[in-house]
Design goal:
Elements (H helix, E strand, L loop, with lengths): L1 E5 L5 H11 L3 E4 L8 H14 L4 E4 L14 H29 L2 E5 L12 H21 L5 E7 L12 E3 L9 H13 L6 E4 L6 E3 L1
Parallel strand pairs: 1-2, 1-3, 3-4, 4-5, 5-7
Antiparallel strand pairs: 6-8
Helix pairs in contact: 1-5, 2-3, 3-4
Length: 211
């Protein structure tokens, strides 16, 4: 059975991906360590890799903040960097020897904000653009080892990501993506005979409502 590590599996896009993979004969490893607890995360992951190699790493966990940069606390700045950028880089580092054995695949869930420059998104954009560029550079590094690397940039998606914000996608079904459809796209990327290195997923309409 193919083994996959999926972060952010408890809700939203990560949950949809984990469930779809399990329905397609994958064993999904759900790490319990918090992504900003680096030593604990490293220890848990190494224990998992002793059991068996993995074929797929999907870095899906993410946090956001959208407000004037001077209003963001130092702790929040560090949290976004840790979860959105540092953790995927560390997990990729720890999993690469295993992925090289299985000729596996790394998929990083970035954001539409990695491709543009939006007001009140400087910090979030920095972390997601960093993840996107990490993915693209890592693909070039790993081409000869046959490890695939894909970066996905989803636009507005109907999840609890917006719970703490003062805005969210409108109720118009053409104005947001569903986690289940993103998960289906992930499966198609995995099964593609080649490498999709970078893909942006967008709803047809742009409609945001304030809470």
């Amino acid at each position: 059975m193919m083994r996959a590590i999926v972060t952010g599996y408890s809700s939203g896009i990560g949950q949809a991906i984990a469930e779809l993979l399990e329905n397609n004969s994958y064993e999904v490893v759900r790490l319990k360590s918090r992504l900003n607890e680096k030593k604990t995360l490293e220890k848990e992951l190494k224990e998992e890799l002793k059991k068996a190699d993995i074929h797929l790493l999907i870095n899906c966990a993410g946090v956001g903040v959208f407000k004037p940069h001077e209003e963001i606390s130092i702790d929040k700045i560090q949290e976004l960097i840790d979860v959105n950028l540092t953790a995927p880089i560390i997990l990729s580092n720890l999993c690469l020897r295993s992925l090289k054995k299985t000729k596996g695949h790394i998929i990083n869930i970035s954001s539409i904000e990695a491709t543009r420059h939006s007001k009140f998104s400087a910090l979030y954009t920095a972390t997601k653009a960093g993840l996107r560029n990490f993915s693209l550079a890592l693909f070039e590094e790993l081409r000869r080892s046959d490890v695939k690397v894909t970066n996905i940039n989803p636009d507005l998606t109907k999840t609890n990501f917006f719970d703490e914000f003062n805005f969210e996608p409108s109720e118009n079904k053409q104005a947001y993506l569903n986690p289940e459809n993103i998960a289906k796209q992930v499966l198609e990327i995995i099964e593609f005979d080649g490498v999709i290195t970078d893909i942006t997923l967008r709803p047809q309409r742009l409609e945001i409502k304030k809470k």
